[in-house]
Specification:
The protein contains twelve helices and 20 strands. It has a ten-stranded mixed sheet, sandwiched between helices. Strands 14, 16, 17 and 18 form a four-stranded mixed sheet that branches. It has 427 residues and is α/β, with parallel strands linked by helices. The protein binds inosinic acid. Inosinic acid binds next to helix 4.
């Protein structure tokens, strides 16, 4: 079983770093296929906590080759500062591979991201402000700058000038901002080139060969299914495809090569930024989930919006990703509630539906229909097997499994590397 995809089944922040890292020791390649430094993975190794934004979490596992695929957008300054931060802590980063076809986030992309959000006012998306959307827009518009362009100064200048021709008009005339100098951008980018060159590779070739050689390749999604630009709650989404198909386009690997697609599912739901969220809580339960679950963004530090588990979303994630199984995270956060509401359907203008509505307005008006499952009060963080869990916690997991349409293969019962119950080994 050489190629697996691991992705968020909700709105991101499901605890993917922990899941990827759990596999890290036995995985040969960990590949990011979309997104950029808008992601935030917290990985706890022993008493050390690492917050990664751009680098694949496999970078923390010796023996594993971390790969940044063609579908990722790379901010070179962030790449280099994450690398040096890890090196200072003794992590060997020399194996990293970066696709020459990945697009670069330049300073003007971040500027445009922030100014556009300000311009949108009430209608803003609540982006991370990292330049993700404008960089993907340039890619699709065919005016993007790729990693490989760093190594040809005259091409780089031509491309940056072409991109800024239009953008400077927008910045100056629409947003009332100063125009950006192409020469300055090029100088900044060239300053990174020498340090990045050694990592650049034909990652598609490397990965396909690895799969053919029966190596274990793990594709690690950033964000989550409901933030997918095609399948998420558009327009309140990120600008890439975190769903399983994105692993194929974002890494150059065909769908027939992928053998397992694991959805990371939090035992409740969170969301960052704007957009509909049917089970969102505005009361002390929401506050408690945020406090106990530590629901503050790794990337932006923003409070995450919190709510009960939504089985409609989980089922949808199973469908659009072809999920084979789930990694259920943060079950320990639910300890202490007498009964736990779980959303099993929506009511939309008096009609009950168990499927996610494709119509945006319907989704904005969806009211959660709850079933109440009995809670537990015992500490579950020391549980090593499913049988160690209190009966009600077991029943909660089984109910979620039933409602979500795929089996649960692992359960997170605490933030540490070893605080995980494996039911069905991933490898
Ligand atoms: P962008 O990805 O910065 O363009 O932001 C678009 C939307 O995706 C916003 O609602 C962000 O809060 C959300 N988002 C982006 N990355 C993450 C993530 O890693 N976790 C959760 N939400 C994210």
């Amino acid at each position: 079983m050489p190629a697996l995809v691991l992705l968020g089944a909700q709105w991101g922040d499901e605890g993917k770093g922990k899941a990827t890292d759990l596999l890290g020791g036995s995985v040969d390649y960990v590949v990011r296929y979309q997104g950029g430094n808008n992601a935030g993975h917290t990985v706890v190794v022993g008493d050390q906590k690492y917050a990664l934004h751009l680098l694949p979490s496999g970078i923390l596992s010796p023996g594993c080759t971390p790969v940044i695929g063609n579908g990722v957008v790379v901010d070179p300054s962030v790449l280099l500062s994450e690398l040096s931060g890890l090196e200072e802590r003794g992590v060997d980063t020399s194996k990293l591979l970066v696709s020459g076809n990945a697009h670069l986030i330049t300073p003007y992309h971040a500027t445009l991201d922030k100014t556009t959000e300000r311009f949108l006012g009430k209608r803003k998306i609540g982006t991370t402000g990292r330049g993700i959307g404008p960089t993907y827009a340039d890619k699709i518009n065919r005016v993007g700058i790729r990693v490989q362009d760093l190594f040809d100064e005259s091409i780089l200048l031509q491309k940056v000038e072409a991109a800024l021709d239009f953008k400077n008009q927008v910045l100056a005339k629409l947003y009332n901002r100063r125009a950006i100098s192409a020469q300055q951008v090029v100088e900044e980018l060239l300053g990174y080139a020498g340090q990045i060159e050694k990592y650049v590779a034909d990652t598609t070739l490397v990965l396909n060969r690895a799969i053919d050689d029966d190596k274990v390749v793990l594709f690690e999604g950033g964000q989550g299914t409901l933030l997918d630009v095609d399948h998420g709650t558009y327009p309140f989404v990120t600008s890439s495809n975190p769903t399983a198909g994105g692993a194929c386009t974002g890494a150059g690997v065909g769908p027939t090569k992928i053998s397992r697609v694991i959805g990371i599912l939090k035992a409740y739901t969170t969301r960052v930024g704007a957009g509909p969220f049917p089970t969102e809580l505005f009361d002390e339960d929401g506050e408690a989930l945020r406090r106990i679950g530590g629901e503050f963004g790794v990337t932006t530090g923003r409070n995450r919006r919190c709510g009960w588990f939504d089985a409609v979303i989980a089922r949808y994630a199973t469908r659009v990703n072809g999920l084979t199984d789930f990694f259920l995270t943060k079950l320990d956060v639910l300890t202490g509630w007498e009964r736990i509401p779980v959303c099993v359907a929506y009511e939309i203008e008096g009609e009950r539906t168990t499927e996610l509505p494709y119509n945006q307005s319907d989704f904005h008006h969806a009211k959660p229909v709850y079933e109440y499952l009995p809670g537990w009060s015992e500490d579950i963080t020391k549980a090593k097997t499913f049988a160690d869990l209190p009966r009600n916690a077991q029943a909660y997991v089984r109910a979620l499994e039933e409602m979500s349409g795929a089996p649960v293969s692992a359960i997170g019962v605490g933030p540490g590397r070893d605080e995980t119950i494996e039911i069905n080994a991933f490898l």
